[in-house]
Amino acid sequence: MLYYHLEARNGKPLYQYLYECLKKDILSGRLTAHTRLPSKRELARDNHISVKTVMNAYEQLLVEGYLTSKEKKGYFVAAVESMPDYRPELVQHAQIYMEDRWFVDFTANQVVYDKFPFSMWKKVMREVLSEYDIELVQRAHFLGIKELRAAIADYLCRSRGMQVSPECMVIGASIEYLYGRLIKILPRHAVYGVENPGYKKIPRIYEEYSLQWAYIEMDSQGISMESLRKSGADILHVSPEHHYPLGTVMSAARRQELLQWAEEEPDRYLIEDDYDCEFRYHTRSIAPLQSMDRNHRIIYMNTFSKTLAPSIRISYMILPEKLMTRFVSESNFYSNSSSSCEQYALAKFIRKGYFERHLSRMRKYYQKKGELLMRVLKQSSLLPLVHISDGRSGTHLLVKVDTPLTDTEIKWGARQQNIHIACLSEFCGEIKEEYQHILVLNYADMEEKDIREAVRRLGNIFVEW
Amino acid sequence: MLYYHLEARNGKPLYQYLYECLKKDILSGRLTAHTRLPSKRELARDNHISVKTVMNAYEQLLVEGYLTSKEKKGYFVAAVESMPDYRPELVQHAQIYMEDRWFVDFTANQVVYDKFPFSMWKKVMREVLSEYDIELVQRAHFLGIKELRAAIADYLCRSRGMQVSPECMVIGASIEYLYGRLIKILPRHAVYGVENPGYKKIPRIYEEYSLQWAYIEMDSQGISMESLRKSGADILHVSPEHHYPLGTVMSAARRQELLQWAEEEPDRYLIEDDYDCEFRYHTRSIAPLQSMDRNHRIIYMNTFSKTLAPSIRISYMILPEKLMTRFVSESNFYSNSSSSCEQYALAKFIRKGYFERHLSRMRKYYQKKGELLMRVLKQSSLLPLVHISDGRSGTHLLVKVDTPLTDTEIKWGARQQNIHIACLSEFCGEIKEEYQHILVLNYADMEEKDIREAVRRLGNIFVEW
Asked: With a CB-CB cutoff of 8 Å, which residues 53-92 of chain A face chain B?
């Protein structure tokens, strides 16, 4: 008899929790390979749950390869690789590796690797290896390699009309890393404002640093000034150019209001996250807040992990002079955290125009793929479609559906179709009716050939239930 | 008339503070190029200080190129590069770049760049560029590239007799970065113990994360158990293999005591910093604490910045299984912070035996240089030498001198000789008589040809005063 404390499921759907319990026992070796599992009926009876619940859990384990079924004989534990020498961390690895098993993962907001300009990148890396010696091994300037800071400053001038001094730029291995350094020079007891809905990583970083933070609501023009003023926030993390996941482009008027808000008090700052600014398809982008900064209030952040590759550990932030002075005295004892070789390579890659050429190719590629996905979604006869977002920038679409299913049920249904999706409600601080039943479909790393099948499976979620 | 508020000098020697004020004004453009400065006598009178004080400050500015002197005409402000467009951050840069101007910098505990195995390193980098494609750009495993973790584990087994699973190893861009991640999984209200004297970076990191910490005294066998017990510390950062800067190798008995201490309470941990373990010249190293760990108490840390190059941003830590489980669930949302390309290259570099070959060359090289420095120090007729440390490991010597000068005066004197040194007292929490008048001479990146001249200048400090 197999019995689980299903009351400990913490609000999760029964079938999902049962599935997780079974998987854990398989990976831990408690259920060894080739063991016959109880029949659906038996397990349902012993655990006081419905047969359908067991069936859903078993189905999922079958799809993922943790179980095999033999006709008329029942379900058997599969010989899962990590089983023999189980350790807790291997369970976690198993979960991470599992991501690869999805037929399509709409939550992976990543680059498409086979479009990476390998030959160009390898060419500049080889050039750097030939041309530099001592520079590759000596301690880099703590702000990052000067050539790279200068190349980025020029690029930002061309592409975003920004006037940036390389002396006010800090290169770092990741946005999280830069954030860690930034927090140390911002007012100690500041309250951080977080867009709601928004990118979940940001509040998580604040939690890690034990900072106070508050959600700020969004309206059609961008961040809600009323909500911001009510929140008591001093510092706001904001993506005016392209909000994730709503896609809102903040209006010029709202940008002005936001700047004014920041200037009202001496310790207010805006952290402008310009992630994704490179992918606009139909409209010209609006000038970033950074270029409107009159009063040392804007911290600008961006990264190459989306435009180039997540393995190239180069992000940057641009500080107003006032903060830069503080940064220099606080942080010059830390070594720069990015590889010198890759910094030189990226500087060359930008200088030679390869970066902008790559962006322009990717822009076309993403636009085409987004349009195809939109077309296929609109043609779907199964999907109870209400609305699709305009898709004029970024690499995701929002799809509103008309369904009695809850968002949790939609996600679970997708899982059974072997596709992984997120719903807008997951990006929210609290449940709001208007943000329900909206799928967030990231298509950046999706293969075009899979789009029709992925949409067919999406449709199935709503039919089979 | 040039007047400075010298009472704001905060305990600094008068001449040093005056020198800093003048330099600041030169860099800020307040004193423009070719301006004639007041004579030594005038400046002394106007500021109520001695002519000798002014002379010392002017001399230093001359040496560093901020002033020029014309016979019978006086002192003039030099045309310093960063002057025209002064911004506060440039002043700071000037200070950083200044490090290059020292004739010898005994504080720079860095590698000697021209001994870097360029051809081997470039060879493996080129191989990685040829052999890998997609692996170079896709998001790396959050613990780091598996090949590298396996290569390090094998190396640690060969060189340190450690049995390490690559699954319990975390690669990160720096020790500071790994520390930031580590702190999140250690008990929240722990008190961290810091060796006194010790590496100054460690308490600084604790301060950054607002952690409680306490100094722990050292005795001849290593960390003092009595001081440790009194301190109330729960977690101790310790370098049993080679304490910096004392050079103490912790006795086997003390290691056992330390392990027992850690096992007494459920939330006690030892962070074993094995930095420098590779450079032992005469004796075999003692087994690291990590290999004696029976009870999930040892966190092991090491880096390639000293053994290879500071620009190769690869450090690692090894966690006990219990902590690893927590680490996986806390940190798997962060991307790995080191470059994938360099991780693959380092894995190859270790696998092919290049790393150990390089270490063995460097060991001979450092040993020879240390012995030469010791010989020259002993022969110096100017240096009031009392004692030199044994130099059997690491890349620095401790030199005790008999002098009426304070440590601040010694450092200032060195500055006037255009050499940069640290005194042991700087590594201490509070002033202790026994740690006074001891020079810490790092010789790793010093050129052999400069040793005699550097020691001559060291001697001058004590003669001219």
From this structure: 87-90, 92
